[in-house]
Structure formats: C-alpha cells, structure tokens
Amino acid sequence: MPSEFVAARKKPPPELLFAAGRKKQQPPPPGMAFVPSEFAAAGVGRKRQPAPPVEIRRVWAHNVEEEFRIIRNAIDHFPYVSMDTEFPGVIHRPTKHPALLTAGDRYDLLRRNVDALHLIQVGITLAASPTAAPALAFEINLSDFDQRVHRHAAESVQLLAEHGVDLAAHRRHGVRASALAPLLMSSGLVCSHGAVKWVTFHSAYDFAYLVKLLMGRKLPRSMAEFLNLVRVFFGDEVYDVKHMMRHCGGELYGGLERVAAALQVKRAAGRCHQAASDSLLTWDVFRRMRELYFLKHGVEAYQGVLFGLELDMDMPSNKTPSLPLVAAR
Amino acid sequence: MCNTITKIMQHYASICFPIRQSCLLICFQAYEKGLMIAVIPFTSKILEPCRSSIAYRPPNPWTMGILSLLAEIYNLPNLKMNLKFEIEVLFKNLDVDLKDVNPTSLLKDRVCEVEGNPDFSNKDVAASQTQISSGISRSTNHVELQSVISSTSHAVSLPNVLNQYATPHLPSNSMVEDDNVAFMMPKHVSSHTLTQVSPSETALASQSPFSLTQLVKLIPHDEIRCKISSKLGSLGRQLQYSKIMDTALDKAIKEILCPVVEKSVGTAIQNTKKLILKDYALESDNNTIKSSVHSIARTIAGNLAYANCKEPLCVALTDHLQSQIQTLTSNNKTIKQLIDVLINDNLDLGCRIIKSVAMCKVSP
After folding, report:
1. Would I find RNA-binding among this entry's keywords (chain A) (predicted)?
2. Which domains does chain A have, with CATH numbers?
3. Domain span at residue B256?
4. CA-wise closest residue to A136 among A208, A193, A69, A53
5. Is residue B281 part of a domain?
6. Domain total for chain B?
7. Which of A73, A77, A78, A175 would best serve as a mutation to test chain B binding (most B beta carbons within 10 A)?
8. B228: DSSP letter
9. For residues A216 and A210, what is the distance between their CA atoms, to the nearest angstrom?
10. What is the pLDDT of residues A129-151, one digit of tens each?
11. Residue A199: predicted pLDDT
12. Contact residues for B11 (Cβ-Cβ < 8 A; gap 6+)
C-alpha cells in the first residue's frame, strides 16, 4: 500500500498552460491521523469546523466483491455520492484556441481521448444528506492501464506517480474494468431512478470514462446522446461544482485545491490527485459552497450540467475570469 | 477496519436487494438442485427487456455476464431441448450470437443431482433414440438395394438395342452378345434372380454384400495411426489420448461404415454403367472395358464415400470421444477443446479409411 505520508515532498512540476490531467497546485495541508469513523447520520456539521476524518477504503481485486457488498448495503442510507477519477491525461489536443471551441468540439476531443485511454482509479464518497459529513469513501484501483504499452500523457502519469499512485501495484492487484462494470450496475449507484445524487468537480471526463465502462463500448458520436446516457446511468441530479462556481459572484475560480483554499475547506484524508481523496474534498467543497452561496435558492437550478459541455446558449459571455479548460486534469 | 465492517454488517444485515445480484446466484442454485427448468425461463423474462433498455442493452457488462453463464449452461451435455430452446430464443431476441459469447466456467466445480433431474435427458431416452435411428437406417438399406437391382435389370435390355445397329463386318455376332451379357451381370446376382420381376426379400438379405462383418474385414488396420497433438499435454497424456482416439475412431467408423459405403458403391455402379455404355459402346476389346469399369467405379465410389462420410463421422466421433473423455475430467470447456483438437487432427484419417473400404468394395 502506498505510503500516506512522505517526509519530504517533491515540488510538483510547473503547471503547463492548458495542461491536461492537472488541477492548479497548492501544497496540501498536513494529513490528519487516521481514525476509524463513526457513521454521521444526517448530522449538520458546525460552521467552519473540520468534519470527523473518514477512512478511505482501498478496493483491489481481492476485496472488490466485499467492498461492493458494503456499498450496496450503504447506498440507500447515504444517497449523496461524490465522485472523482484519475486517468492518464489527454493525448488528443485541440487545433483551435481553447476559447474558440464549441461544446461540440470539446465533446469530440473528450470522446477521442476517453476512447483511446484507460481509467486508472475511481474515488467515491457517500454521504447521507447535502449537509452531512462524508460517511464512507472508496478508492477503486484499476488494473487495465499499463504505461509501458498504452498511450498516455507522460507528464500526467508522472504527476500521479509523484502523488502516491503505485501503477505497478495497480497492474498486479487492481480490479479489471470489465469486472468493475457489472458490480457498478448492480450496486445501486447507477440506474437508481433518481435515488442517488452525484456531486463532482469538472467531471465531463470522469463521467465519460464511467459511461464507457458501463456500456461496454466506445462513447457515442453525438454529445446529445452522451448527455442522455449520463442522465440514464446517473440520474438528473448531477452537480458539477465547477459549473456552479460561475454563479458565485465571480469570487471562485481555478482548480479544486484553489477553490477549497478559498472556502477554507481542508482535505479530510489522503493526498491530492488521488481519486478518493479528491472526491472527499469535492464533497466538502460542495457542502461549504452550498451553505455560503445557495441556501436561499437551493442548488436544483444547477443540476444536470457538466462544465465544458454546456449548451452554447447557456454560456455566459465574458463573465468567467479564467478560460475554460479542455480537461479536468 | 474490523470495527467499521462489524458496524456495517450489524446495521444493514437485514437489508436485502434481491434483484441486483440475484440472477447469477439463482442460476447456480438452480443448476445444483435441478431447478433450471423453472429458473431459465424466469431469467429469460428478466433479460428480454434489456434489448430496448439504453442502460442494459448488450454489450453492457452486467447483461453480458449473465449471457455468458447461460452460454455455459447451453453447452452442458444432455441438456433438455426445451431449455436449449429457451436460451436460443433469448439470444436471438437480444440480437446476440451464441458463438460470439465466451461461456463462463462457473459450473464446473458444482455438482448437480442426476437422479430424476428434469433438466437433462437421461440415458434410457438416449438409448431408445439410438434404436429408432438404427431402424431408420435399416429401412434405407432395403430401398437402396432395390434401386441397385432395378437399375441392373434396366441396363440388361440395352445390348439388344445396340445389336440392331451392329455393322455386318463384325466377325462373331454371338460372341459379342455373350460377352456383353456376362459384363452386365454382377457376380452376386444369379441368373435365376434376374428372371423374377420382384426378387424376394429373403434372397436379398442372404446375398447382401454390405454386411458390417464383410466391410470390417476390408478396413486397412495397418494404416491407422492416430495423430495426437503435442499441445494436449505430456507424453503420458498423449498416449492416453491416443488410446481413446483409437477406440473412438474404431467405433465411429463401424457406426457409419455400412450406410456410407452402401450408398456410395450403389451410386458409383449406376453411374459407371451409364458412362461405359456411352463412352465404350464401340469398344471391341473386352479387357479394356473391364479395366475401365473397375477404375471408374473405384474412383467414383471412393470419392463419394469420402465426401459423404465427413459430417456423420464428425458427429459420431464427438459422441464417442465425449463419453470416454468425461471419465478423465469434468471440465466441460476442457472436454470441448480436447474433442475439437482430436477431431481436427484425425477426421481426415477416418475419412480416408472409409474411402479405402469403399474402393475395395467395388472390386469385381
């Protein structure tokens, strides 16, 4: 198991403009000690107080059945799911300037990249209500990606390795994507007819990888069909925090780490660029953002939209301080 | 970790989600207890709507997982026809080809009750079917024999017609006529028989040249060398398979030898007569005619037998190999692979043996 703490952390390489597979860097706060968590049943966390830490469950080939049994049993009581994935960057890049891309262009790039590459890690966090602290977190480690054989963005893979993702362990002990898909289908997480709500950060690529996994085939040609599949598998209540940030008076921008720092949200467990840890942080950011900016009108108006794949008529003109990124990491 | 799991188990032990994982479990239990006759139609009903479901339609991995198990069940030996039919219909409705699905091997380690199991055909029924098949085969033999005799009778009348156009310069008219008559009468049919319009069945049976006993004597045993692929395991294993293959090939050949040789030789004789009468009508050298008859008849009979025996020999070999190899291993997938390799390597040998028997049978 990769070490959770390193005495001296290497400085991450400088972030490239529009570089793939990377969020803006800030040094993560010191990790907290691991303590087995008590289930938080719909408790309202105190304002600005750190939530009790959640232990991240590591899912490998040898225990994937057992862990999904836990998920199946838990999902009805913890229907809010925060999700993040790790994948080997992007290899197809836009020929136009990113600001000139239409939603269709961005989807086409996404489709070509996701069809060509392999998922590395999936992180999910379960919570009981929009205000509840996270109850369970799972880090599902996949075995399909082999950097010696498969195409990838070298800097993205190196970044993952530097943040503790042990690719050799994934190949030896990881879950095969073809074995994970049926477990997802029967887990209650997907095709739940609205029972499960999803919270994500800049998640077009994340959902694309999961849709490809669940269908057992390449992504559909048209963006409309893809968005319909997201709705079929994940329901109507899908929240992309990156999209919601645009409606926070321009105060929030950038990647997950930066937004968390702006909201004074601390990483609950693990390290950045690990899927489960990022899903935990995404959940906490969502709760805080909802508390600060959306209490009056609620968040329902922002569901079902993935950042970067908005229909063009929804695009606000010249209000975003930063240019839209091609990919989440 | 232990505390967390304990809490989870205690808190949620009573919760049950039967639909999500139940299909696979139900199939396992049904197989062990002889209940597939009820469960497979149930599973088919559940999976049928998958075709029109955006989420579940093939190749959705969850759906394909269950179809793979059904493919394994479909390939079980002696599975009842109605269960096979149910699975075939499901695959057709989902637009999935059974051949495209890799069967699982989840049932190999599970033991099912055999006594009174309604999921499988029992041996008595199979034996009964074999007898029926033999009866059909025997009827075909009679029909074929009568055809041969009728054709011979018809051919005898031709020389008289030919003689009407003989040129005056032929030295001995009666000599030519005698030779033709001799040529037209196969040795095994007496002149007395020819004078009867309908030869008796008893006479036919007693004079039948196609009995299994006679044909078996013609099998060139010295030529039989079964080929065992080295990929089937160690040398000891190969010797074991060689013995099994010898036995299976011998049984299979004896099983199909009579009908194939009989049909091929009969057809060859008919066609040879037509060819000789047409192409050698003016030939005056009796030795040339006889050697041509022999050569043509042997070639036609051999090739016909070779072509006709391939498929029935393959079926017979599969059955015999299956019954023998099953005593070695219970892995159905392994058995199938073994049988495929053994048959691919040795089917041609079996065909050649039958061909040589048919060619020998044509000797005057």
Report:
1. yes
2. 54-293 (3.30.420.10)
3. 175-363
4. A53
5. yes
6. 2
7. A73
8. -
9. 10
10. 998 999 999 999 999 999 888 98
11. 95
12. A39
